[in-house]
Design goal:
Strand order of the largest sheet of chain B: 2-1-3
CATH topology of chain A: Rossmann fold
Shape of chain B: flat
Number of domains of chain A: 1
CATH architecture of chain A: 3-Layer(aba) Sandwich
CATH class of chain A: Alpha Beta
Helix content of chain A: 10-25%
Largest sheet of chain A: 9 strands, mixed
Number of helices of chain B: 5
Number of strands of chain B: 3
Largest interface: A-B, 21 and 12 residues
Number of domains of chain B: 2
Distance between the termini of chain A: 11 Å
Structural class of chain A: alpha/beta
Order of helices and strands of chain B: HHHEHEHE
Order of helices and strands of chain A: EHEEHEHEEEEHEEEH
Helix content of chain B: 40-55%
CATH class of the largest domain in chain B: Alpha Beta
CATH superfamily of the largest domain in chain B: Phosphoribosylformylglycinamidine synthase subunit PurS
Number of strands of chain A: 11
Oligomer: heterodimer
Shape of chain A: globular
Distance between the termini of chain B: 45 Å
Strand content of chain B: 15-25%
């Protein structure tokens, strides 16, 4: 089993993602440069956080046209698990693997702080390891993290169980105060209808070890690895 | 007979128009590619047909534009108290060295330059350089 961590010019959480997998879980993970045209030999893809292409035009807009992304889109449509964290989430929305878009934080502030998240769907390859309703603590670090979708799309996402993570307070309530950036319905992470593509603004890659302040993020990587192992078995 | 009576006022009007609008008229004449031939080095065929298009991208009306709100508040602070809305978008200038393929540009607007989930765009007409 081998997991790809795609590197774009401007990615800066690529090491965090790789080490969550290699050091945190002892599994094999490798960087894939954005100019590669194939992801053959990999079982899952992680699009890390950062500022791909300097966030020029719109966050994630230009990365979507990288050579490697064509194979990622194809693999995702064939069912391969693809996980976009932060800028990776923005890229997944830009290329249309996930619906909606991420716009500037309501406060205009770049937010770098811990948040609480409620897991609302544990049927994805990334969340099987956790209990539905679990409250996880992870940091956010973004300037454009407000999730936006029109009313109809929002309704379809909610009804289809595609809202995977929501910003909540410590006791698990999705209050307006617990919403750090103005995301609609407090949405922090969504998946595609099949569940194999997940986008999440907060950083599990910065919360996989107690030395980082939280190890709740490790659950997501663990779930992914478990899923891949069970498929292989 | 009629012409002689009209001649003086006509010349007067012409002089006034030339004085007031002369700069603009000459500039636009000089800008016209047909006249470039007389005033510049013989231009290459590519230069003659250089065209600049502008793509204007704006946040959709129903999408929160915190940047616009911040600018609006600053504009009000500076004394324009009756400003109700400011929205901040962007203009992308695109220069062509020949005839622009506007259909293709429109496609690229939808694929790359504009995210139609949150933005609208329009392509502003061809401008001769």
């Amino acid at each position: 089993m081998k997991i790809a961590v795609v590197r774009f010019p401007g990615s800066n959480c690529d090491q965090d993602c790789l080490r969550a997998l290699t050091d945190g879980l002892g599994v094999k993970a490798e960087y894939v440069w954005h100019k590669e045209t194939s992801i053959a030999g990999f079982d899952a893809v992680i699009l890390p956080g950062g500022f791909s292409y300097g966030d020029y035009l719109r966050c994630g807009a230009i990365a979507g046209f990288s050579p490697v992304m064509q194979s990622v889109i194809k693999a995702a449509n064939e069912g391969m698990p693809v996980f976009g964290v932060c800028n990776g989430f923005q890229i997944l929305c830009e290329i249309g693997l996930l619906r909606g878009a991420l716009i500037r934080n309501r406060s205009l502030l770049f937010l770098c702080q811990p948040v609480y998240l409620k897991l609302e769907n544990n049927r994805t390859p990334f969340t099987r390891w956790s209990e539905e309703g679990a409250v996880l603590r992870m940091p956010i670090a973004h300037g454009e993290g407000a999730y936006y979708a029109d009313d109809q799309t929002l309704k379809e996402l909610e009804e289809g169980g595609q809202v995977v993570f929501r910003y909540v307070n410590e006791t698990g309530q999705p209050t307006p105060e617990a919403n750090p950036n103005g995301s609609r319905n407090n949405i922090a992470g969504i998946c595609n209808p099949a569940g194999n593509v997940l986008g999440l603004m907060p950083h599990p890659d910065r919360s996989w070890d107690h030395r980082l302040g939280s190890e709740d993020g490790l659950q997501l990587f663990k779930s992914l690895v478990d899923t891949l192992l069970s498929v292989a078995a | 007979m009629g012409w002689e009576r009209l001649q003086t006022p006509f010349v007067l009007v012409l002089v006034v128009v030339l004085v007031l609008e002369g700069g603009r008229i000459w500039t636009s004449l000089l800008r016209h590619s047909a006249f470039k031939f007389f005033f510049t080095q013989p231009p290459s065929p590519l230069m003659l047909s250089a065209v600049k298009l502008e793509v204007v991208v704006m946040p959709k009306r129903n999408v929160l534009d915190p940047q616009g709100v911040a600018v609006r508040n600053a504009v009000r602070e500076l004394g324009l108290s009756n400003v109700s809305t400011v929205r901040v978008g962007k203009i992308i200038e695109i220069e062509f060295t020949g005839e622009p393929d506007e259909a293709k540009l429109d496609e690229i607007c939808r694929d790359l330059l504009c995210n139609e989930v949150i933005e609208d765009y329009r392509i502003l007409g061809a401008v001769l350089k």
